[in-house]
Amino acid sequence: MVKSSEAWLQDIVAQRRGRLKIFLGYAAGVGKTYRMLEEAHTRLAAGDDVVIGHVESHGRAATTDLIAGFEQIPEHLNVSQPTLVGELNVPAVIKRQPDVVLVDELAHTNAASWNKKRYQDIEEILTSGISVYTTINVQHIESLHDLVAQITGVDVQETVPDAWLKQADDIELIDIDPKVLLNRLAAGVIYPATKIARAQDHFFQLQKLTQLREIALQQSTRQLSEQNAQQGQQTRHFLVAISQSPSSDNAIRWAYRQASVFDAPWTVVHVQQSGKNLAPAVQRHMSLAKKLGAKTV
Fold first, then answer.
1. What are the φ and ψ backbone dihedral angles of 68, each rounded to 5 degrees?
2. Which residues fall within 8 angstroms of residue 119, CB to CB, at 6 or more apart?
3. CB 113 within 8 A of CB 123
4. Alpha-carbon distance 77 to 167, whole Å?
5. Is pLDDT of 34 > 60?
6. Distance between CA 200 and CA 185 in Å, rounded?
7. Cα–Cα distance measured from residue 253 to residue 257, given in angstroms and rounded to the nearest whole number
8. Is the pTM value of this prediction over 0.85?
9. According to a count of CB atoms within 10 Å of the terminal CB, is the N or C end of the chain lower?
């Protein structure tokens, strides 16, 4: 069958389009931006041309240190605001034509731009053939808006359409134990001291964070499943690595629920030094895994 000129043009555009990678988290402070910068440094060291379009350090020293070493595209400044507001400078990024541009906070609403939303800015950049690394928390996904509001009592205004997110070539879930996240908050790593108490009274509560974490895990699993289905890869296998931590039981139960939904095999693994006996806590976790039908290693 002979292709039409329109079909040929569509093929050329598709080949030129940049790749989109999303770093997904369930709350502020889990390490999305940090992980994005880590991977960007790896690509930079490999010889790829990687630049920063817009990255928020939020005053976190470790994140600020990772920003060093990258060329930063000058942002578009909105001088009509009481204070200068920096926005992603889409024309400057496209003119620069890097291999990859880092763009934080995907769900952001622009204060001054020809596009209302940042994901629309990113769409322009992808269409120009530039790959994008970006970050988002699960509460900013449109279809999860009501569910997150019920859990947290917070009505999140900035959202990104699910249909747009589905085009991502890769989604990496940045996952940490909610208790670790709460420790980060208390230590002043996430917010300044003046904001910690308010965060603890609202969003940052163990039960809420645990529920948000499970939603994020389900979202990333669902997206991977859909991508595999599109590529004709129907085989799924869930792997859970456990330790003596009490939270291992939660991870095992989550894997069981996901494996049941997708009718997939699942394995629970524990790594230890040879010659040593399993700790009693690990034995209990393994017993639970076997009871739920997992293969244990």
1. -60, 140
2. 106, 107, 160, 161, 164
3. no
4. 30
5. yes
6. 8
7. 6
8. no
9. N
